[in-house]
Write a structure and sequence with these properties.
It is built from 10 helices and no strands. It is 80% helix and 0% strand.
């Protein structure tokens, strides 16, 4: 491992450690509190986008943001705003993953595995399929960056794979009479199961063909 790889590895571990600490200190309930505090603000939209940029660095989940956008802006406008927010919140971890891409060490092994997965399924299919699975969105973003997925494929795969989740969560928010921690509910379990199965089918077929060969 070169000195540069060691430095990147140290920075990566330090960053992830800081995010874990922030996630414990500022849990999901704090995200809801902050989003609730935006009600009535004339700066609602720019503040939301600023929070979207901050979100991956404090370990907040993405779902309360999509629900809040649905509550504040309704279904149609909410989906469009949530899509922009999704890209804003996904690109920083992806860019960090690209920086941490290495040829040796722990990140080197992760990079190699990610590259093999992307080569087998294709960049677009890999990102879209992973987005459809109920796994933390930031892990997919970091993983795509470390695996060296092309930016255009990452953006398109993110939109395609996350759009069904976004529509469902924004719809939940649009139906709320009052936005509160108690009012935020996840998607219907059958919907989650259906999207998970679709994600498995998207990435499963090429993986199965690769293993069979």
């Amino acid at each position: 491992m070169t000195t540069r790889d060691r430095l990147r590895a140290l920075l990566g571990f330090a960053l992830f450690g800081a995010i874990v600490v922030a996630a414990v200190a500022f849990g999901p309930e704090r995200a809801v509190e902050v989003l609730l505090a935006l009600q009535g603000s004339p700066w609602l939209l720019p503040l939301l986008f600023a929070l979207y940029l901050l979100r991956p660095f404090v370990g907040w989940p993405h779902s309360p943001f999509a629900v809040a956008v649905g509550f504040y802006f309704g279904l149609v406008s909410g989906v469009l705003i949530a899509l922009v927010g999704l890209l804003l919140t996904s690109l920083p971890p992806f860019a960090i993953g690209r920086y941490l891409e290495a040829d040796a060490g722990a990140f080197g092994r992760v990079s190699e595995l990610g590259e093999r997965f992307a080569e087998t399924t294709g960049d677009l299919r890999a990102v879209a399929g992973a987005r459809l699975l109920p796994v933390p969105a930031d892990l997919v973003s970091y993983g795509a960056g470390v695996a060296g997925v092309r930016t255009s494929r990452f953006v398109l795969g993110t939109v395609v794979g996350d759009l069904p989740w976004l529509v469902g969560l924004v719809f939940v928010g649009a139906q709320l009479e009052a936005f509160s921690a108690e009012g935020i509910e996840g998607l219907d379990p059958l919907t989650v199961l259906a999207l998970t199965l679709v994600g498995l089918l998207v990435v499963g077929k090429p993986l199965y063909s690769r293993l069979r060969d």
